[in-house]
Amino acid sequence: MAPIHQVTSLDVVLLLSGLWLLSKCLRLLRRRAKSTYLKGPASKSFVFGVSRWLSERKDADASLVLEEWAEQYGAVFRMPIPMGRTQVVLFDPKAIQHVYSKREAGYIQPPATTIFIADMIGNGILCAEGESHKRQRKALTPAFSNAAIRKLAPVFLDSAYKVKAAWDVLLESSIDGDAIIDVQGWMNHVSLDTVGIAGFSRDFGTLQGNHSAIAEVFESFVMLKQTFFQIAVFILSTAFPILILTPNPGGTLYRNSVRTQRKSQGSCSRQPERRRMGLVKARETIP
């Protein structure tokens, strides 16, 4: 009698893994056969593509490297990403406009991005696709119409004047009239104060140097140093989206920022309305 082979759980796992890998390879070959051939840089690694190489570059920003590739390979080129796959990069404004305007027609964001956004801020318009995204965008359109934006113009001008006044003080206080200004940091304060006034009718006061818990959380992202393991998990999440849920300091900071924003929103809703948009008379700030 022939020996009977018992199927173990390991055999099942190996079989399923092999079938999954085979389906991925067949899908990749089919996609390459049907899609238009695009030029692009050579892959640095089958596992990481060029993602790890871009993240570890010290001599140039990743956006500058992409601009160099656009000049070399054209406004539309392919870029190697993890696990032997490629990603189409668009530098043509008309192509970008087409993708964003026709998103509900079939242009969807990567699964890892959807999982990341849903985990951090919940399932909203940023996670929606197809008809759901179209319906939610239609509901939000009145808030972003020309008339609505025009009403917020005083808020933007108010922040611009505050920045100008602060920069004038820095230049006047310098000995030779020159000063090094952290423009990115100031723009972050402009964004935070503008959103606070326009969205909640409250001034966070970061442009005046006031302490803000939300600003502190955002600044901590800049100071965060990730390990090789965390970078590898983030890069490989494009191929294995479930990895985006792996616990890491960056995710903890994001969740803390969400909790801080919700507390600030609650604080704004409980306080009486004392400030009108565009006016600079309110003395009260929120943490």
TrEMBL record:
<keyword id="KW-0479">Metal-binding</keyword>
<feature type="compositionally biased region" description="Basic and acidic residues">
    <location>
        <begin position="271"/>
        <end position="287"/>
    </location>
</feature>
<dbReference type="InterPro" id="IPR001128">
    <property type="entry name" value="Cyt_P450"/>
</dbReference>
<dbReference type="GO" id="GO:0005506">
    <property type="term" value="F:iron ion binding"/>
</dbReference>
<keyword id="KW-0812">Transmembrane</keyword>
<keyword id="KW-0408">Iron</keyword>
<keyword id="KW-0349">Heme</keyword>
<dbReference type="GO" id="GO:0016020">
    <property type="term" value="C:membrane"/>
</dbReference>
<dbReference type="InterPro" id="IPR036396">
    <property type="entry name" value="Cyt_P450_sf"/>
</dbReference>
<dbReference type="InterPro" id="IPR050121">
    <property type="entry name" value="Cytochrome_P450_monoxygenase"/>
</dbReference>
<keyword id="KW-0472">Membrane</keyword>
<feature type="compositionally biased region" description="Polar residues">
    <location>
        <begin position="258"/>
        <end position="270"/>
    </location>
</feature>
<dbReference type="Pfam" id="PF00067">
    <property type="entry name" value="p450"/>
</dbReference>
<keyword id="KW-0560">Oxidoreductase</keyword>
<keyword id="KW-0503">Monooxygenase</keyword>
<dbReference type="GO" id="GO:0004497">
    <property type="term" value="F:monooxygenase activity"/>
</dbReference>
<keyword id="KW-1133">Transmembrane helix</keyword>
<feature type="transmembrane region" description="Helical">
    <location>
        <begin position="228"/>
        <end position="246"/>
    </location>
</feature>
<dbReference type="GO" id="GO:0020037">
    <property type="term" value="F:heme binding"/>
</dbReference>
<protein>
    <recommendedName>
        <fullName>Cytochrome P450</fullName>
    </recommendedName>
</protein>
<comment type="pathway">
    <text>Secondary metabolite biosynthesis; terpenoid biosynthesis.</text>
</comment>
<dbReference type="GO" id="GO:0016705">
    <property type="term" value="F:oxidoreductase activity, acting on paired donors, with incorporation or reduction of molecular oxygen"/>
</dbReference>
<feature type="region of interest" description="Disordered">
    <location>
        <begin position="258"/>
        <end position="287"/>
    </location>
</feature>
<comment type="similarity">
    <text>Belongs to the cytochrome P450 family.</text>
</comment>
